[in-house]
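Allow me, if you will, to draw on your knowledge of protein folds for a short while. The matter concerns a single protein, recorded as an amino acid sequence and a row of backbone structure tokens. Kindly check, if you would, that the fold set down in the tokens agrees with what the sequence suggests. You will find the record immediately after this paragraph.
***
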Amino acid sequence: MLALFTVGMLLPSASRADDAAPASRAIRLSSVQGQVRIAQGSQLLTDSALQNTPIFEGSQILTADDGQAELQLDDGSVIRLSPNSSLTIAHLRGQAGGGDAEIVLDGGLAYFELQGESASDHIRLRFGDSVVTADGFTVLRLNLDNPPGELAVFNGNAHLVRGSASSGVSIDMHGGESVSLSASDPAQYSLVESIEPDSWDAWNTDRDQSLLSAEASRTGAANDLPEANNPAWNDLDANGSWYNVPGQGQVWSPYDASSPSFDPYGNGYWMDTPRFGYIWVSGYSWGYMPFQCGAWNFFDDFGWGWAPGGCSPWWDGGLWISNIGGHRPRDYRFPLRPHPGPPRGSNPHPLRGGFQPPDNRIVAVNRRTQYSEGSLPPRSRSGPVMIAGQQVQPLRPIASRPFYAHPSSSGATEAVRPSYSGGRIPAGERPSFSPSATPASGFSHTAETPTPRPYSPAPMGASRPPGSAPHPSAASRPASSAARSAPPAGRVSSGGGGGSHASGGGSHR
């Protein structure tokens, strides 16, 4: 019962990147709607981005006319891109959950919920020749439809610096203020104590409410785990149960695992990346943290469970399956990582990579295993279960933190995230949203996207040629937010994206 069997699919030790290898810290692509592209340097990685994809330093996210994207940083910050927008992860270094990050908005309209500066974590938002930093939890909207840009601060405190120290400007802003920068003179700007509503504000608020709704299931199991502020932890509370198993520690099991055909690596994609080769992108809505670290175990009379643990991220160190329950499922087939190049024999070994993929960067996997041992016993979501010979109760949700409400421009009351002045949101108190994402292919590995083509980002202000990879620019985007693609059906313009608003205004030079 205590025997441990581990299979790891080790990733290549040499980097395929042209430049010096950056740190392996990543940002989660937590939600994708419509067409979203991912590029790395001059290479287009995918035309159809996938939820749960880790986004590394140097990556660019581009949304098409119908595209919307949400990214979650490991410190708890959230970024949302509206259609026809582009964002680059210019700098992402340090340990997961702390370090330096620089996010560049290349064009379009985006919302940022920043945790703010701390002793161990520094995040900068750059657009053109301007840089924004936050003091404590801060909600921002940045619009580049009218270069050089318009910044609105819904909640919290932000500091905007434009240009050099000798000839530029420095502005301290608080919730309810907005600023428009001048295209003719970097020293000119208009700062007002009000925020002009945008048609996408309601979408941003709705996404925030989706995150908040998951908090009812929060157990606090991840409070003492690495990256405790990562919003991805809350997906586990909302989609499964945590158990504190004597001798094992914390074990999480998804509700899906009660099915005898459940396979943790049966639903997802292999995605080729410049530095790490093929990495695993889970198709399960909750599938980010359980495939970043830790180990999956099969427990007799219970099924699959995942135990978090300290290790390198799976894209940099390995992909792990363990067995602590007496034996692994007799018919279980270990996942085989694609290996670019000739197949490695008729019986490929999972340690070395299993098969030669088609000439594509995305390989879909959708398999279902019927184990010969028969069905697992019924499992209660709220009652005791047997794990490794121990009867344990699932962890119960803890009390949700309070939130306040403010009237919207339509007169309705909408709940918004509370303000944490001068500090970070406590660990585990940011919920996460997890829409479903299931590969459409059958069991066999099949190509999902066309062969990648060279990608050349267009400079700001230049139109792009027909058929080229889209890059939002000042020339190709509408001149005002009113002309932008309409938000999803049922969305209406609201008075803001997450903070209080004040009236009045003025102009400063």
